[in-house]
Write a structure and sequence with these properties.
Length: 132
């Protein structure tokens, strides 16, 4: 009986650990680093939370249609270390951001380089992607 109890405890622990390990999705599997592009638009939302911050940018596509891009960026702590904080972002200003678009063709992306209206730039990418 004691062996069965120990086996169940070990099995339960392994399942719990594997669930946590799978929780962080593959960024390279989600975003296409070979299709880096730059979009320009106005931020409509900023979410400064772990594990990744994100912004929503309203930008026109090639046909002039407005699209809402959901752009995942680095963790708040990593962004703060580069000198970027959420109070610096203005929801009425136009920004440019280099992105790696989603592989599925949606308007989801991973951010790479954020350019402010005054020309200041911040590397906002998560550590998974290339740095150049």
């Amino acid at each position: 009986m004691r062996r069965r109890s120990i086996a169940i405890t070990i099995l339960t622990s392994l399942i719990a650990c594997s669930t946590v390990a799978l929780a962080h999705h593959s960024m390279a599997g989600t975003y296409d680093v070979a299709k880096s592009t730059t979009i320009r638009g106005v931020l409509s939302e900023i979410a400064w939370r772990n594990p990744h911050a994100f912004v929503v940018m309203n930008a026109k596509d090639a046909n002039g249609k407005l699209a809402s891009w959901h752009i995942e960026i680095a963790a708040p702590n990593a962004l703060s270390r580069t000198g970027l904080n959420p109070q610096m972002l203005d929801l009425t200003s136009t920004y440019s951001i280099e992105i790696w678009p989603a592989r599925d063709g949606s308007t989801n992306a991973s951010g790479r380089l954020l350019t402010f209206p005054d020309g200041r730039q911040f590397d906002v990418h998560d550590v998974w992607g290339p740095t150049n």
